[in-house]
Amino acid sequence: MFLPALHALMQDDHSVSRSFAYSGVLGLAVVGLIGLALSGNVQRGEASDLSNLLSLCLTFILLPLFLAVPFYEAVGNTSFLNAYFEMVSSLTTTGATLFDTPGRLGDSLHLWRGMVGWFGGLLMWVAASAVLAPLNLGGFEVTATAEPGQGDTRLDRFERANVGKRMGQATYVLGPIYVALTAALWLFLVLSGDRPLVAVVHAMSTMATSGISAVNGVQNAGSGLGGEVIIFFFMMFALSRLTFSSDTITTARPGLHHDPEFRLGMLLVLGVPLLLFLRHWLGALEVDQLEEFPSAFAALWGGMFSVLSFLSTTGFESAYWEAARDWSGLGTPGLILLGLSLVGGGVATTAGGVKLLRVYALYLNGQREMERLVHPSSVGGAGARSRRIRRHGAFVAWIFFMLFALSLAAITVILCGLGIGFEPALILSIATLSTTGPLTQVVGDSPIVLIQIGAAAKLVLCAAMVLGRLETLAIIALINPSLWRD
After folding, report:
1. Interatomic CA distance for residues 402 and 389, integer angstroms
2. Rounded alpha-carbon distances, angstroms, from residue 241 to 41, 209, 267, 471
3. Which has the closest alpha carbon to 139: 307, 430, 311, 343?
């Protein structure tokens, strides 16, 4: 909080600076008192994996209450519920905002939103390795031998006897990578023409896949096409953990080009825009009206950038997305973005959605079932790892997909019962469960004005964002008494 306070002070915005400075001092005092109270409890035992999962869940629910205090005081003319919604959206890397009116928030408040989203992304990176992986949750259950929510006795990523040590190891390994990538992206964006503040917010939101922006999107930034190209390459880190690490093994063969998540992601990034591009191109050949090359390039690039952005659940819209929409000739291209957000990015990344590894497991299972229709007595030639993904992994992935669909239906029905129309309710449900908040602004015929939604609906959306960030299987593990007894 002291960084936004210093930034506001440098801009002579003393009221905002005081809000963050006083809240930061209060936070340090509270944390110090809690630490002092717990320091004498030497008899406490080591926390279990489920206890840490519960702590992670409570972090997304309770921490925004404190993070919203300086935001509420700094804005001044809003309710605390709106500030809480904004902080839940940022911490879960959803990026849906109630304050989308230009000039409503100052630069320091945008910086605070970006920082909260950035720390939320780092939290999920660390939690994926230290909390979710030992419990075979968050996508790890597809390749694991144990049941979701239960530990794998052969797990050797970290020492299972010391959960705190695993958290420290994960932070030590992943933290510097996360900071270095963010700093590099910020530098490239500044060199491309962005203001330093705009560049740092976009850099943080790209690495966290939050889609938070100080200028309502990268299409309004000063870096232009060059900035989009730079962000495009950094968004690829959300397609697979293997883009920066080797601790999430999904294939027996090493190398990023063998990783099924990355290959499936790139197939969508290249294939979907190409289909939209060819749809118009073939029609133009029929009537002998070929577009000029710059228009064709703009349409193709706008499709590629937006597809990767929403597949990674970042939600940035390319400045050339309108050209891609006009080029495709589709009346509702936003449905494509909805589908891409539902698919989501890679396991153990900051991306949300169903995850590419689960989709790949279902694909393998479907491919094998079609082979058995043609040759009922055939024997699959895949290795042990692929057989496990195709059988056990596909079964668990299908269960997760059904739970995701049930959650989507339940939240949509609840929102409709609270007075929201069916189409906006469906968009809001997908945006929150997939942690892709910008969907609310680009998918429908007109943007959804979130600040006009009732208080009860905002609380439902906050719950949906937490559910989408932690995933349904993790919530089931938390409320399953048999797992706590184990």
Report:
1. 18
2. 38, 14, 17, 18
3. 343
241 token code pair: 């953990």
Q: How many residues does the chain have?
A: 486
Q: Is 26 exposed, middle or buried (0-12, 13-18, 19+ CB in 10 A)?
A: middle
What's the maximum distance between 2 C-alpha atoms anywhere in the chain?
Answer: 82
What gap in Å lies between CA 105 and CA 467, rounded to an integer?
Answer: 28
- pLDDT at 154 exceeding the cut of 60: no
pLDDT band at 380 (very low <50, low <70, confident <90, very high): low
Tens of pLDDT, residues 212-265: 999 988 988 888 899 999 999 999 999 887 765 555 555 555 667 778 888 899
Provide the whole-model pTM.
0.89
Which amino acid does the sequence have at 104? Answer: R
Angle at 434 between CA 431 and CA 440, to 5 degrees: 15
Give the C-alpha separation, 440 to 425, whole Å. 10
Gap between the Cα atoms of 82 and 73, Å rounded: 12
Over 80: is that where the pLDDT of 291 sits? no
Helix extents (H) in 40-98: 49-75, 80-91
Which is nearest to 299 in space by CA: 319, 271, 269?
319
CA 217 to chain centre: 16
